[in-house]
Amino acid sequence: MKAIDILLKSSTRKFLIKNTKSYNFFVIALLTILLLFSIALSISIGSSKIPLSKIYSVLIKGEEITKEFQIINYVRIPRTLAATIAGCALSLSGLILQTVLNNALAGPSIIGVNSGAGLFTTLIMALFPYYITLMPIAAFVGALIATLLVYFIAKKTGASRVTIVLSGVAVSSFIGAITDTIFTIWPDTAISRTSFLIGGLSGVTMNSIKLPGILVFISFILVFILSYDMNILSLGDETAKSLGLNVSRYRFIFIVLSSLLSGSAISFAGLLGFIGLIVPHASRFIAGYDSRLLVPVSALLGSLFTLFCDILSRTLFAPYEVPVGIIMSFLGGPFFIYLLFKQKRRVVDD
């Protein structure tokens, strides 16, 4: 076990691990404090501002101040929890994909995972509108099928970084055409089309995030438990096999977990983009490349990023609201272009 730890630290130049316990504790503690502050801010700020004292009265003392009570309990808290859960899920999904596919450009919105989840969610809305509780399961199945399809195409055509991205673009385009066809055949479904495709958190309820929240929590625990194996898998197939890891089995497990995470978020938040691309890179900048630290850091940072974007979406043009997906696209688009230029300076096909 100790020999493997040494190999993880020294076998490749990019595998930088900030392994001091004090630094790790500081990072986790700081992000946790910032997340709690952002949660309080998210509940307080909106089209109508609610002082922290009244939030305390409603939540702690149980004081039912009519207007504030309804806003806090039926609008702000569900929306804040939705942002926290979606950010955690999509950032972890992106971290897993980038690690197990060994591709810095991989992300749920880039390689077709979101499109697959969106297609199956749309099918549920069109064919079974009274079974909305099936949406998390349908989104998971769609995300899993899309991910496996992209991986299969890339593997058969040469699993380079560019091939995986191009396969994702092709699969996303094909799935997008099917989704548009469903919206055309069932026009009633198209009423919520714009908000779903852009991604947004307005109108979420506690019931809509209950099951996805449970699935995300279970997935987070499993990813954290398997984070050491994710470290080994990131060293490359040959090295991982030499260390006794069943590469095919673990890669499939991680792909399933990634699909479950992204599908759960998409089922209530729509096709939020770029979280799974931006946050893992920011997490590595803060915490290095050790997945045992990256998993909690990515979860916390993803929740923070989503809450920040959601607060901006509510306050920039108040009392009007911009869908949070638009804010993320403004931030994520330039970052993706930056990554493309960064990859150009390296060996493209490896």
Report on the architecture of this protein:
With 350 residues, this protein is mainly alpha-helical. The protein has a single domain (35-344), classed as ABC transporter involved in vitamin B12 uptake, BtuC (Orthogonal Bundle). 74% of the residues lie in helices and 0% in strands. The protein is built from 15 helices and no strands. The protein has helices at 2-10, 21-44, 52-59, 66-100, 113-127, 135-157, 161-185, 193-198, 206-225, 227-233, 237-242, 247-269, 275-287, 291-315, 324-344. Helix 5 packs parallel to helix 7. The protein is globular and about 65 Å long.
Topology:
Blueprint: H1 2-10, H2 21-44, H3 52-59, H4 66-100, H5 113-127, H6 135-157, H7 161-185, H8 193-198, H9 206-225, H10 227-233, H11 237-242, H12 247-269, H13 275-287, H14 291-315, H15 324-344
Helix pairs in contact: 2-4, 2-14, 4-9, 4-12, 4-13, 4-14, 5-6, 5-7, 5-12, 6-7, 6-12, 9-12, 9-14, 13-14, 14-15
Helix content: over 70%
What is the total domain count?
A: 1
Anisotropy-based shape: globular
CATH architecture: Orthogonal Bundle
Secondary structural class:
mainly alpha
Q: For the CA atoms, what is the radius of gyration?
A: 20 Å
What is the distance, rounded to the nearest whole angstrom, between the alpha carbons of the first and last residues? 29 Å
Number of helices: 15
* Spans of at least 5 consecutive residues with low confidence: 10-17
- The percent range for strand residues is under 5%
Could you give me the name of the CATH homologous superfamily? ABC transporter involved in vitamin B12 uptake, BtuC
What is the CATH T-level topology? ABC transporter involved in vitamin B12 uptake, BtuC
What is the mean predicted local confidence, pLDDT?
80
In the CATH scheme, the class would be Mainly Alpha
Major sheet description: none
Q: Helices and strands, in N-to-C order?
A: HHHHHHHHHHHHHHH
